[in-house]
Amino acid sequence: MSVSSKKEMLRVDDLWVEVEGKEVLKGVSLTIPVGETHVLFGRNGSGKTSLLMTIMGFPAYRVRHGHIYFKGQDITHLPPYERAKLGIGIMFQRPPTIRGVKLREMLQLCARENGYRITELAREFGFEAFLDRDINSGFSGGELKKSELLQLLAQEPDLVLLDEPESGVDVENLEIIGRMIRKLLQKEVHRPRRKSGLIITHTGFILNFVAADRGYVMLDGKISCEGNPQEIFEGIQKHGYQECLKCLRRMEMEKTLNK
Amino acid sequence: MSEKNGDGKDPKQIDLSSFISAKEAKAPSSLEDFDAEELARLKEVGLDLSGHGRLGTFIQADCGVVTCQCLPEGLELLPITEALRKYDWLKENYYWKAVSPEKDAFTKATEEDLDNGYFVRIGPGEKVVYPLQACLYIRTDRVAQKVHNIVIVEEGAELHIITGCTTSPHAVSGLHIGVSEFYIKKGGKLTYTMIHEWGEKVHVRPRTGIIVEEQGTIISNYISLDKVASVETFPTCHLVGPEAVAQFTSVIAAPEGAYLDLGSKVILKAPRCRAEIISRTVCYGGEVIARGHLLGQAPEVKAHLECQGLMLSDKGYIRAIPELEAHFAQVDMSHEAAVGKIAKEEIEYLMARGLTEEEATSLVVKGFLNLRIEGLPEELQRRIDKAIEESKKGL
Hints:
The structure holds 2 protein chains of 2 kinds. Chain A is α/β, with parallel strands linked by helices.
């Protein structure tokens, strides 16, 4: 790998976060280099979404300790729209409906810095019929994901945060959603990639559509394990998260014994 | 609760004698007497002066009729004073028949000292695509403008009217009394859109009565997004023939200092009539009473009332007063009312897309006030959207 591809896009450093007085992240650290896609596995309630929300900067997620660096800049205390302007984009798992605001209008707002051609973009993924509908209003599971990804494509962020992109999507749409994510992360580009991604997944099935460079397992607000994403995925598929816990206990025991 | 309506008491205790008669003001003879700022005001309330000539246009400043021209055949547009001289039947069958002059001090004052107003009549079966535009304009400070309008839609005819009401940028205070009586005959249709953009010291007292016959339709839209001292209006619509339809929609913003007591009442007097009252209110610190009263006085009627409010400040209030009254077993009548603040998750969602908190709030409010009116021709919807866009600029 060339030196430039090793440049860091995101660095999370010993992050402790609480929501309404409850500790949700307990010392999380990870680094995503430019051009890499990392996957975060974990059960529901393990803290995966909290990590994404904290990286995006939502005020309910209070950082008690630690730092977030984006392209080398400390963004720990920036509001979400400043982070968006710097180049972070997020795909929500359950985006709200905004009455009276059309998807087209939203896409134009997302694309206001780059002048992206909205209609062409929507047509590419068979979504132009939704442009003049109220955003997310009455959208099915797959349509919500497409709407979210279309907004991100218009926004063109350098770091993409994807929260459970495959949940509630049928097989047919999963193919299109995979294609959208690959475009977003420049997976089909041969020159050095500039985009990075952090994908949250409970099932891991998104890996069948999007290649990842590194995987993590999150348990109870901590990253308990990291390694080859495919191996982690296969391990979880075979043994479930229960096995992760056992493995973790074994590791901890070995650690104590070695002392 | 309802003491503020119907019995002539006025919550703001307006003293009619503190205003001067519109007749004392010097009336302009044509639009050429208007300066650029005044013309811009007219545009803000939806008046299309470029289409001047193509459309029917009525402009009254204080007491004087500045423009009264009408091209489409089958459509008659006259100053009301002239129409009353011309047609004896007007006084006999229509004048003060849907609104009582004894209703309150304002109707009495209008009966005693009428300035002017418009008379519109569309002949049987005639359908006019382009909207007729009317403008009632207070040009002189401290004027009390007393207007009486009558619209008659004959059998099977269709008419669209846009009325813009505003004040000159040079006039500070004023009182506008507008008596309106609409008569929609069998199978006729009237869409009436009123856009108010008064000043912060202008008091407004519309008094409206509507009578709709068999299979007739009234679609009434009211838009007020600007500063105003007080508005009190409660149009009363009588659906007297079977299958008559009424739809009232209002889009309201209440800035600090504004007192808005608004609503409509529909009396469904014949079988299979339908009525809908919808209001959207954004409160920036003003006082808003959002009323709606549906009265089912015949079997098989269907009526719905919907009142939604957004509170953007801890000052002011929105008081929603929905009323349903059924007199038959076979009716379908419902209401829903909701008042609250903007959902935090909507704001945060937009902020994650790069909008500042202020931009996000403004977008959510604009979306909330976006209304789709069923049964409106595309051209008219476009005009209304444009007018709302214009008046939203201040939000």
